[in-house]
Amino acid sequence: MRRARSRRQWSRMAELEKTGEIVEAQVVEANRGGLVVDVGLRGFVPLSQLLSVGNLGTGERAAVPDALRDYVGKRLPLKVIEADPRRDRLILSEKAAAQQQRRRRKEEASSRLVEGQILEGTVASVTTFGLFVDVGAADGLVHRSEITWERGIEPTALHNPGDRVRVLVTGVDRERGRISLSIKRLVEDPWARALRELAVGTDIDATVTRVMPYGAFARLASGVEGLIHVSEIALRRITSPSEVVHPGDLVRVRVVAIDPDRRRLSLSMRQASGNVVYATRTDQDANV
Q1: Is the pLDDT of residue 237 over 50?
Q2: What three-state secondary structure class fits 64?
Q3: Check: CATH 3.40.50.300 for 190-286?
Q4: What's the pTM?
Q5: CATH code, residues 2-94
Q6: In the chain, what are the domain boundaries?
């Protein structure tokens, strides 16, 4: 009778391993290596498979730490990752169960989301390719190209984990469970404003943002950046833009060319009226 019940229980564990179904189990014992749980059979959850307990230091290995003792008597959602009746080995994972639950929540969330929705979220993590934002039930990705309209800066440096952000849902891939988001599309494209306000021959103030060997980039009040070629910086001949301008300088420029298709703006200090670098350095340094 007992053997038949044991076979049935092992058969069920093997089926759970195949299907990935999550099972709840009570923690009955804690030791230095992890937790012993009761799922009809005795199973083991190794330390590495627990969500809130990391690897123990050498001093903590001598006794069962309180963090593990606190689990005893609690019920945990677990996933069977190995069921081997011949070796009497049943291994379960709290981490794998949590990952699966999160995937399911993401699938459920993506089924409710539609493109064009505006959501409040929290930056969950920052990577080289963008931000993962928790919008409630799941995380969505703000690709680095969708963080800001500004150019010449590292977009992923603008936010940190824990930051609250407003995002626009730009895509929902229900089959792959992916949610695409944008931060920058919630504000007007600076180029749209620039095309309304600027015209070739217009003189306007701009702030130098970067100085390169071939010229200086300057940002207008509309938010767009334009290039002042080295030949268009001063009335006299100069070999390097840094002889005249530095990042942060406020300068008067003339719009000499607008290329909306390539999103390029050509500027000239030399042609602008009142060709002066305003006071951000000493008077001697500011002379053109």
Answers
A1: yes
A2: coil
A3: no
A4: 0.54
A5: 2.40.50.140
A6: 2-94, 113-186, 190-286
